[in-house]
Amino acid sequence: MNLFISKPITGAMYYVKDLESACHWYCHTLGFSLGEHDFNDFAELTVDGQYVMHLFKSNGNDRAARATFSFSTNNIESTYNFIQDRGVEVSAINKHIDHSDFTFNDCDGNQLMICQFYK
């Protein structure tokens, strides 16, 4: 029994060079809303008013070359088409026994993943 860590994970943090531009990309391309923010340091991204992740201003090359977490969707094909229609280069959809997923890069080259888990 783990007494120190509880679920779920409370959020993810990614680092970007231009915080204001990255926020626009995440909101326009992925449909997030901008929560609390200070474009000199951080920005909170939300979905339906619920916290999802933070973007922090990077002072170097902090990009995530591989996805470190995944967003969830109920329809992988529609989500894939939605993101692709916004001009984002996406990988092929990978089908596994319990889920399907695909990856793509944000405007700073951070790799992101979206998954649909089967029930």
> Which CATH C-level class is it?
Alpha Beta
CATH architecture: Roll
What overall form do the CA principal axes indicate? Answer: globular
Low-confidence stretches: none
Strand % is 35-45%
Order of helices and strands: EHEEEEHEEE
Largest sheet entry: 4 strands, mixed
Walk me through what this model shows.
With about 120 residues, the chain is of the alpha/beta class. It has a single domain (about 10-115), classed as 2,3-Dihydroxybiphenyl 1,2-Dioxygenase, domain 1 (Roll). The protein has 2 helices and 8 strands. The protein has helices at about 20-30, 75-85; strands at about 10-15, 35-40, 40-45, 50-55, 70, 95, 100-105, 110-115. The strands form 2 sheets. It has a 4-stranded mixed beta sheet with strand order 1-4-3-2, with helices on one face. The longest helix has 12 residues, at about 20-30. It starts with 11 loop residues before the first strand and ends with a strand. The relative contact order is 0.20. The model has no long low-confidence stretch (mean pLDDT about 90).
Summarize the model shown.
The protein is of the alpha/beta class and 119 residues long.
Question: Any key phrases for this structure?
Answer:
119 residues; VOC domain-containing protein; globular; Glyas_Fos-R_dOase_dom; VOC_core; alpha/beta; 2 helices; 4-stranded mixed β-sheet; 2,3-Dihydroxybiphenyl 1,2-Dioxygenase, domain 1; Glyas_Bleomycin-R_OHBP_Dase
Topology record:
Blueprint: E1 12-16, H1 19-30, E2 33-38, E3 42-47, E4 50-57, E5 71-72, H2 76-85, E6 94-95, E7 99-105, E8 111-117
Parallel strand pairs: 1-4, 5-8
Antiparallel strand pairs: 2-3, 3-4, 6-7, 7-8
